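Journal club prep — side note

Before the paper discussion, L.F. wants everyone to see what a predicted structure for a comparable chain looks like in token form. Sequence:
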Amino acid sequence: AADRRRGAASGVMAAEPVAVFVVTPNAADGEVALELLARHGIAARRGAALCALAAVLGDGLGCAVLVEEALVEEELPLLREALERQPPWRDLPLVVVAREPALLGEALGRAFPQSANVTVLPRPLSAVTLVSAVQAGLRATRRQLEVAELIAERERAVRSRDEFLAMLAHELRNPLAPIRNAVELQQTLVHDNPLFGKTREILERQSAHLTRMVDDLVDVARLERGKMALQRARVELNGVVASAIEAALPQVQARGHQVQIDLCAEPLVLDADPTRIEQIVANLLTNAAKFTARPDVIRVATRREGGRALVEVRDRGAGFAASESEALFGLFVQGEQTLARSQGGLGIGLTIARRLAELHGGSIDAASDGPGRGATFSVRLPLALQAKTGPAETAPAREPAQGARKRVLVVEDSDDIRETMRLLLTQWGHNVAIAASGEEGLESVSRERPDVAIIDIGLPGMSGYEVARRIRAMPDAATMRLIALTGYGQPADGKRARESGFDEHLLKPLAPEALRATVAAGASPAAA
């Protein structure tokens, strides 16, 4: 009791968590309220002013009881700011005791505009009414804490999932890299047996399919965590759509479909990431091909809709019920599957497409006349403001660059990746040296002075980052082009690679044409 009176006199609450905090400038009324709550097993403390309540909001408070005399105009902003700093799930129950509740309602709305959990009790106040209101407030707080724990569990699960996806992508990229390299090497061989050519085509097609799935897993993890960074430029939509069709055409034609194109006659200029816009359209095309069972025509059209550009991908395939249109974009959601799972896929292509469209300030909608009656996916993207000047960029050229013979060093601990890269680079006319560790790589750099060094980041012992830093510290290494090769594709990885001295940061499995273009590129910008 003595401690309670000292706290009342000072208006400051003790540091330990409490269940209820009573704010009243009248010490006698406060004592009565605390004793009443204590008889019902409710721990409580008292403060003389709102500043005392504001000071203890983060200390396990379950409910606050305020008398109208404590609602001093000068102190209301302090409490309001403290309430607004609470977590989004938190809405502290407030029980306000007033002589004329109807007159106080408007004032409370101004005082606590963000709070929806205010109960006003009239005076004279019965003990039962006060205890009942406080108990209801404590129950509400317990429910909020349960929700908070569920949110925390979900966040932990999402983090674990994203970490698993990143690890899975890395582990899948390592074996995919030598497979793609070996398939490319097979293309250079002359063989009379038609079975050889047929099996090579199968390997090429399936390894490309696996690579796309790995890339999708990484992209969806980035998008879920808000880590996707757009590389915006002024682009012309029709050119990007044409590139997307070209990219998706092998997969579409493999199912016997054709693509009919109806592009807008006028340019549709966007401020957008051309790679990601291409990915949106390609995902919609492959989705249409997947869910159109018999060979058919898939139609792609673009046009202007006011200040937005529209891309439509229309098929005559499986279709869906109107009630399912939004569910299609859910993560890992797929159409109806048989045990054969002939459509395949992970159920993330549409999720990625919609999230990428939203990152650009756009949207994607799906419509169908019903099961078996086809579907139309409509992408709307904001057109660029006309005030900007300069030509729109076209889609990047797909032809690999050509260059002179170069001295290339490959530093990679995987025997298969290292050997297949050596064979490919040698086939293209380059002089190639190899190393299986960072230490061997540094010795080879000192001895061979290569024009280009392709260095795996995940080397045993000395990492690729450290290898790059040590190479950049060598005399006469400014013109050497350093390429980081890794199975991890987070934006922070690329930033760290550049800070370590790399000129480029490339993901496994690196497509052979991309490898050829990278090696053929000019000297390091550090030489300037």
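L.F.'s comment for the group: The longest helix spans residues 127-186. Keep this in mind when we get to the figures.
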